[in-house]
C-alpha cells in the first residue's frame, strides 16, 4: 500500500493533524519552559495525568478527561503558580509528583484491576498506543482549538512571556502580573499534555517539549528565532515520525522521539560548524 492510499483513511489524517498541532503547541511552550529551567514539568504532569487516569478507571468514569484534565491543571498551577510560596521547589517538587503519581497510579490499577490485559493498558498509556486508530474527530477539533489558544497567547502576550521567561523578578517589579501568566502557561501546558498522551504516551511527552527548544538553541540565540525554529523543527520531525510509523508499523510516540533525537544531533553538528565558521 502506498502512502497516498494510507491517507484515504480518516484515522491516518486525524493522526497527522493532531500530531502536528500538538507538536506546534509543545514546541512554542517548550522554549519558555526550558529557559525557565522547568524542562521536566512535562514528565511530572504526564505522570500526574497517568495517576488521574488510573483513578478514573477505578471510579469507572466513562469519560476520563472529566477527571484527568482538572487534576492535571491543578497540579500544573501548583508547580508554576505558587512557586515562591511552597517549601519544596523546582526539580524536587516535580520529581516528587512524578514518582508519587506514577507509583500510586500503577498500584491502584493493580488493586482494582478490571482489565484482562493490565500490562498492555499500562504500556499503551505510558508509551502511547501502538495503533493510531484511537484518535477521533473530537481529538482533532480539541487540538485545533488548543492550537489557536496557544498561538493567540504568543501573539498578544509575547512581550510579557519574554519578560517572565528571562527575568521574572524584574517583570514583577515593572508591574507584570507574573503569577497570572505563570498560571496561564501552566493551564495550557497541562491541557497539551493530556491531549498528547493519546499520541506519544506519558513517558515520552517531555521529548516534544525539550528536543525542539534545545535543537533550535544549538543554532539560534534570539528568543524569537528560537521559537520559530523550534516550532518548525517540531512540526517537521513529528510529521516524519508519523509517516515512518504508518509505513513501517512502528509505535507512533517512540518513532517521533527517535526522529527528534536524530534532528537534535544534526542541529548540534550544524551549530558546531557555524561556531567554527565564525
UniProtKB/TrEMBL annotation:
SUPFAM superfamilies: ABC transporter involved in vitamin B12 uptake, BtuC. The chain crosses the membrane at residues 12-35, 40-59, 65-82, 94-112, 132-158, 179-197, 227-247, 253-274. Keywords: Membrane, Transmembrane, Transmembrane helix, Transport. Gene3D superfamilies: ABC transporter involved in vitamin B12 uptake, BtuC. It comes from the Bacteria. InterPro entries: ABC_BtuC-like, ABC_TroCD. Its main location: membrane. It is a multi-pass membrane protein. It is found in: Cell membrane; Membrane. Pfam families: ABC-3. Belongs to the ABC-3 integral membrane protein family. This is Metal ABC transporter permease.
Amino acid at each position: 500500500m502506498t502512502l497516498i492510499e494510507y491517507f484515504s483513511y480518516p484515522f491516518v489524517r486525524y493522526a497527522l493533524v493532531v500530531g502536528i498541532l500538538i507538536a506546534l503547541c509543545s514546541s512554542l511552550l517548550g522554549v519558555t519552559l526550558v529557559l525557565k529551567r522547568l524542562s521536566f514539568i512535562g514528565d511530572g504532569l504526564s505522570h500526574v495525568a497517568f495517576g488521574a487516569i488510573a483513578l478514573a478507571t477505578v471510579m469507572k468514569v466513562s469519560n476520563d478527561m472529566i477527571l484527568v484534565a482538572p487534576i492535571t491543571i491543578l497540579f500544573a498551577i501548583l508547580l508554576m503558580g505558587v512557586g515562591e510560596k511552597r517549601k519544596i521547589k523546582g526539580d524536587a517538587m516535580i520529581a516528587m509528583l512524578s514518582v508519587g503519581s506514577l507509583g500510586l497510579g500503577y498500584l491502584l490499577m493493580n488493586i482494582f484491576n478490571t482489565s484482562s490485559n493490565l500490562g498492555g493498558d499500562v504500556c499503551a498509556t505510558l508509551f502511547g498506543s501502538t495503533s493510531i486508530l484511537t484518535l477521533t474527530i473530537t481529538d482533532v477539533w480539541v487540538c485545533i482549538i488548543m492550537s489557536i489558544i496557544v498561538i493567540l497567547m504568543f501573539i498578544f502576550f509575547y512581550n510579557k512571556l519574554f519578560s517572565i521567561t528571562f527575568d521574572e523578578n524584574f517583570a514583577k517589579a515593572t508591574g507584570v502580573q507574573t503569577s497570572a501568566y505563570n498560571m496561564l502557561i501552566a493551564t495550557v501546558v497541562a491541557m497539551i499534555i493530556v491531549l498528547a498522551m493519546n499520541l506519544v504516551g506519558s513517558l515520552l511527552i517531555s521529548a516534544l517539549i525539550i528536543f525542539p527548544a534545545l535543537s533550535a538553541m544549538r543554532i539560534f540565540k534570539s528568543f524569537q528565532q528560537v521559537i520559530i525554529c523550534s516550532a518548525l523543527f517540531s512540526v517537521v520531525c513529528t510529521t516524519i515520525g508519523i509517516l515512518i510509523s504508518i509505513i513501517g508499523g512502528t509505535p507512533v510516540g517512540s518513532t517521533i522521539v527517535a526522529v527528534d533525537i536524530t534532528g537534535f544531533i544534526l542541529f548540534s553538528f550544524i551549530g558546531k560548524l557555524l561556531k567554527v565558521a565564525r
